[in-house]
Amino acid sequence: xxxxxxxxxxxxxxxNRYETSHYKSALLSDPWKPCRRPRAIVKEWLLTxxxxxxxxxxxxxxxxxxxxxxxxxxxxLMDLSVTKxxxxxxxxxxxxxxxxxxxxxxxxxxxxxxxxVASSFSHxxxxxxxxxxxxxxxTMLSGIExxxxxxxxxxFAKFLGLICTLAAGSTVFLGKVGPFVHLSTMVGSYLSKFxxxxxxxxxxxxxxxxxxxxxxxxxASCFGAPVSGVLFSVExxxxxxxxxxxxxxxxxxxxxxxxxxxxxxxxxxEETLQALFKTNFPTALPFYxxxxxxxxxxxxxxxxxxxxxxxxxxxxxQFTKTNPVxxxxxxxxxxxxxxxxxxxxxxxxxxxxxxxxxxxxxxxTTPHLLLDSRQWSSQFHNASVHLEPEPLxxxxxxxxxxxxxxxxxxxxxxxxxxxxxxxPVPAGYFMPVFVYGAALGRLHAEGVAYVFxxxxxxxxxxxxxxxxxxxxxxxxALSGAVTxxxxxxxxxxxxxxxxxxxGPVLLATLLANALARSGHRPSFYDALSVSxxxxxxxSLKRACPQLPSVAVGQFLGVKPIQLQKAAGxxxxxxxxxxxxxxxxxxxxxHESPILLGFVLPIRTLEKHLDEVxxxxxxxxxxxxxxxxxxxxxxxxxxxxxxxxxxxxxxLVGLLTWSEMKKILEDLAREI
Amino acid sequence: xxxxxxxxxxxxxxxNRYETSHYKSALLSDPWKPCRRPRAIVKEWLLTxxxxxxxxxxxxxxxxxxxxxxxxxxxxLMDLSVTKxxxxxxxxxxxxxxxxxxxxxxxxxxxxxxxxVASSFSHxxxxxxxxxxxxxxxTMLSGIExxxxxxxxxxFAKFLGLICTLAAGSTVFLGKVGPFVHLSTMVGSYLSKFxxxxxxxxxxxxxxxxxxxxxxxxxASCFGAPVSGVLFSVExxxxxxxxxxxxxxxxxxxxxxxxxxxxxxxxxxEETLQALFKTNFPTALPFYxxxxxxxxxxxxxxxxxxxxxxxxxxxxxQFTKTNPVxxxxxxxxxxxxxxxxxxxxxxxxxxxxxxxxxxxxxxxTTPHLLLDSRQWSSQFHNASVHLEPEPLxxxxxxxxxxxxxxxxxxxxxxxxxxxxxxxPVPAGYFMPVFVYGAALGRLHAEGVAYVFxxxxxxxxxxxxxxxxxxxxxxxxALSGAVTxxxxxxxxxxxxxxxxxxxGPVLLATLLANALARSGHRPSFYDALSVSxxxxxxxSLKRACPQLPSVAVGQFLGVKPIQLQKAAGxxxxxxxxxxxxxxxxxxxxxHESPILLGFVLPIRTLEKHLDEVxxxxxxxxxxxxxxxxxxxxxxxxxxxxxxxxxxxxxxLVGLLTWSEMKKILEDLAREI
Lengths: 671, 671
Fold this sequence. Notes:
Two copies of one chain form a homodimer. Chain A is mainly alpha-helical. Chain A has 28 helices and seven strands. In chain A, the strands form two sheets. In chain A, strands 2-3-4 form a three-stranded mixed sheet. Chain A has a three-stranded mixed sheet with strand order 5-6-7. Chains A and B meet through helix 1, helix 10, strand 1, helix 11 and helix 21 of A and helix 1, helix 10, strand 1, helix 11 and helix 21 of B. Chains A, B: GO terms for molecular function: voltage-gated chloride channel activity.
């Protein structure tokens, strides 16, 4: 992609001028459009505006800023709608106080209906809109085109479906970030289409760059966390991160995050720009140096938990694909299935039933409480219960130890979360894992504090540890381990604005990742990719490490349409008409097809091939013996160019992204 | 680089076993070494240890951890020595209180001698050790080998020279981070050599990966800032960041940063792991939303200041290279020149002379004071001067407005800094710019607070702004703009542990970068690269944008040594002996040199070429029409492989990193 830019930047002036005059003449000469004169004037004004804007910086920067602002607005809008819907549910539930049966109906049917609506809606409008979308985004970022996943209907279905899913609340316990990254790529691709006509000569690479930027903006505008957005964008790339995308990513992510936080200020929710889950850890002595060992242990614990979760998830993915009842149900009755699962999950969390032991009334997707820096146990010991806010009461009834509800919560949420992952609705799977990790970290810390404060040993300093820090580290470690990424470490810090625990959080995340990655285990998204048979090379490699070493030669099908040097006008015309490629290779002769170069179909028709000037040399060639991985790497390096596969100088095939997509789909089918 | 790893990971087991048995037999049969039996036993123990370690994770992870720990230790050791040397100077200066002449001698000669020593020392031991080292590291990271810059003597000279430079203190006003990144790459390259024998089958890519990791560790262990270390490592790459380096970078950076902070704890300086320049900004309301505009303005101000600084720096670089007096002096009398410049700088900052107006007694390389969250002006207004620590007094004498010393400091330090950059000593240029930016931000904020508090307008909220936040933003913005990077934004946050200002800091850094990068201006390191004629493609491209589009064909010199398919044993032996390449290309015949593949010299001698199995196909080919930039990109993708340049199937040349280095050096000479 870098090549494209450089080649084209050589004569931006000329291209610009050419296009401007082209617009004008096309407008004035277009006979069937009404009000030609006013339209031309408006257009001229727009062109002047574009010149003014373009003089300051390239038009693509405006599109990045627009992407950030639009996504921040969507994120704010979604948060607002979800809050309203959740409050409505809560209001209804409170109004029915006293009548358990009606309360149960309200508690269970509301999320069940919402999930059923989300599911049927997204299934009927655009079936590609279900799930997280991150596996598809990863595939698109690796260079494969998947137009279904970037359509306008998909965006519409995903946005509304996601609101419904999130409004189902903490009973269904699903998140926002994955679909938001997907939404961001859709908005990005639309904006890049919108800005392409005014970008003059950067068509080819604009779309690819926009997707990378959009991935960063998705995370940044969802949480107001620009730096972790950029790191996420780096991590989500398949093998190489092009440095040309670095500054655009930062710029767009900063726009998105700042605007998102500004919306909160403008709406009057907050006085200034602050972290999403603001915490108040003590800054004087955030933790004792020896606590590092506890954090390391927590990291390993989270790694083990992630392995458990991932294997359950893989099992249920396999189960839903092989069990005939499931297959039939998911094929025809998506809405019914979603409603049933949501009903089941909601019944379990009903506050008068098992829900009372797992704090189901707390809106768990905002883990403020878990990140609280005070020890819950000591809060109760000090008998200051009546001073505490009500939510804390949810987590512990006075008298019973504080870690019992936490442990019960963790035990139940594990299977509930795995079950919720099968729901065919637009939903994110990152935030639930983040919260689960926070609960795990909190339990760890409360447990340690309990053991030391009850006088088992004489470690007084251990009794006063800050459980909020452990919750933070646990959240980052578990979500990092499940997704095989490190950006959650930074995300945890950006979400809470708490930098004092940066070191331990990073340590826990690294250790959890090490455990989760050992033994070639696939990540959460890898498993989804493989299960969906997406043409994503890194996932395929993880599932079957020897696959990408297959030689590319064995996938090259029929010989491509080619021209010989001495081709006459008739042959050229025929080739141009039948070829679907953007380039037609030129060879010595059909008998000895030594590759000479290629011609562009549009410019060829006028000339004779012997005019050497119009035959361009192919700069990078592949041999049929090169592996799929090498071909993929070279292809992502050269961007949209066509790669020629030659053996001993003779042309044996072409390789473009669409061929690569077919090859990878073939490979995915073999797993 | 990724390719290598995958190809070789196919049979790690076999390679491992082979090598183990090979060690044993070689040891036992070696006749001239004494104590064969004990040595063999020890070696066997070591091998068992290696197996145990290797069972947990790859040996390379131990080398990354070792790199982090070693660098953290060196960083701590350096800080300790520099602090001692600075205290000695301060002690001497205080003892001479009352005698201005002696004080002047002490104040000026101490840094002059240190600089002279640093300069002569580094010049005599290893002339490559002067300067920052970051331009060279960037060149090495882009794939070019520069063994002089990784030698042990260089490490020795750089380490000791840097201690001397830093001990010269705030009069010379130079930093630590650049040389530290360079030191880190040297240590990394030694560690990778040390670990290579036990790494079995990952020789090729180990060195390259180690350099990338080392760049991250350099920053991380210098400041205890792991995330900005990784971002620096991403930014410093020439065009693509390979994702395989991402986790190693994070791991090693975390090791380095944690160990560095732990050393501070163990030495008793601090109670726990905290940020290097700890600040205490108010968390309730860090800034008003409208202050964003002030931060944006500060970003633009820093961008303008960076342009000014960079053009001065380019001018003096040009001047020292063209002025005959300078050339002669820098060629022969490096020590004298350094001493003279240091003497001049020290005389200017003498506290009884101009130094009293620019707080020269404050140790400026630790900008605690500039980042203070209280307004200096209000401190004096409140007449609580006697309660303040002495350093604050340095910045302002009661009665005079607080911004005068700051403005004088900024004015003087600009030319002093540019002059200091010409010193031929090992020194970093990042931290001075960071501090300069902090002073600029502070001046901006104090100015705003002064204007509003003196009743010009009625903006009461503006009068209570926190100047520390502006100093932070200014530091990040100016250092980011000068180096054309964004990681300083995160570095500023990690250095101070202050997350509340993340948004404004990022905004200011982005705007400053936008201004500094506009109009194809080279960055600080680009200018150094071009001035030193380093074979670094991105710098060359910035200096002369059309250069890298030159076709690679015109640089291909003599025909490479090649074998024809029907070559006999004598011809093969001759080719193997004369060729300096690691691969020898095989062609059809010398008359029609159609490329068939290549052979490895070592394995070839035994066999006849007709045995097809030993001729390996070349997977990626280049045409002579491909540009230097394309060739560079493909070369960095395939790692250490040799690229074959063919035209119509005929071999016309070879391309390896050493050829690429020659090409880039040729290009650099043309500028």
